[in-house]
Design a protein that fits this description.
By secondary structure, this protein is mostly helical. It is built from 2 helices and 2 strands; from the N terminus they run E-E-H-H. It has 2 domains: 44 residues, no CATH class; 29 residues.
Length: 87
Amino acid sequence: MIKGCQREMIVMQTQDSTLFESAYFILRRQRVPPSKQDMVAEANRIIGVGSGYLAGKRKKGRRLWLFALGFACGALLAAFFILLLYT
């Protein structure tokens, strides 16, 4: 939540990313304005910390694969019991 009526915000637009269109950074109030290199380094650090988000998304594919494997095993087991009953 943004509190107060005067905040400094940096908007970074990108066109080469398939995931993000823009990023918004709201600066903290401080007496000495940060240098451009400090802001870029801090933005890269924040992005690096948030990169774990994509790792969590990859786990869903593994879960789906395990679900499909369990479903196939259950179907084979059910088919086996049906064959035992009717033969």
